[in-house]
Amino acid sequence: MALMFTRLARNFAKAGYFPTDEPTLERCLSAFEPAPLGSMCILDPCAGEGAAIAELAHDLGRDRVHAYAVEYDHDRAQSARRLVDRCLHSDLMDTMISRQSFGLLFLNPPYGDLVGDQCGGYEFQGRARLEKLFYQRTFPFLQYDGVLVFIIPVYTLDDELVGWLTRHFVDLRAYRAVETKFKQVVIFGRRARGRDQNTESARAARQLLLKAGKGDVELDELPLDWPHLPYPIPAAQSDPAHFYRISIEPTQFASEIARLKGLWPSMDTHLGVAQQSLRPPARALSRWHLALALAAGAISGIVRAKSGRVLVVKGDTHKEKSSTVEYTELEDGKVSETRVLTDRFVPVIRAWDMTPSSPTFGEVLTIR
Description:
Blueprint (H helix, E strand, L loop, with lengths): L21 H8 L2 E2 L6 E5 L6 H11 L3 E7 L2 H8 L4 E4 L5 E3 L4 E6 L22 H9 L3 E12 L5 H10 E8 L7 E8 L7 H16 L16 E2 L10 E3 L4 H11 L6 H5 L15 H9 L4 E5 L5 E20 L5 E19 L10 E4 L1
Parallel strand pairs: 1-10, 2-3, 2-6, 3-4, 6-7
Antiparallel strand pairs: 5-11, 7-9, 8-9, 12-13, 13-14, 14-15
Helix pairs in contact: 5-6
């Protein structure tokens, strides 16, 4: 069954974006059956515009499914947010997602080779590919008995990737995607513990996948009607405890800055610069007091003389050392020299002459 809205998926690559083609997605739907009781959690960590995960949620029973998605592109993430319960606009490697929390993992990762600094801490024995990186990052999100749908180019199936699949999953089946432009293969599997593995079936699946990866065998096209027992999607044990982006989204950060305005509204409180009315002194200051307060920087600002002269005054005091030399004649006739360094506080007053008619207009005058 398909959703009754305009399809958002596109059957072309756009900026490294390879959405699942619509016929392949529709044929995948018949491979699953919902849990008889309880709600289900499903995840698409490379959701694009959200069409695939929305179709899956609708087919399993939208009222019983919690659909989660992660998407790197901003515009596609905004589209996906309208179709799923929770969507992160984030690089998948910058997320915190609870392990063993999802009953279905729909993984159609980016395709391409990795360079050394993009491996995200994983070490690859074979060819370093984005498909492997995303697989290693996401398969722990599946709960045991959870179902994997893995859509990748067939030529990426090497010894390393096939070995992972056969160790982590049982009931492995692989088919060629309906759209052949990107040479995609659709792999289904059910996550199992090592003790549940059937050595013979794992060996057969390994041989088939390796031959397909080398081009020795052409896989059958994904059937219109699923010919096997459907994969049951297990009920969720609980909602994911962690599903968030580690770093804050740029748009969210901008909105928080606009809302909180940083420390500017409370600058006076935090920096102690609140304007307070100063109490006048008990008696008029003498010239000595005025000079001392001015030199200490306690008085500053605009000073207007009766003659009309206007100065912007700022005072300060710094410490200098004065040196004196004393000579003393000793009993044996020798002369000793003693240098004495004395701290001296030097007041300095700088005034910016703002008198329009003054010959020093605009100059900074220093008064010592």
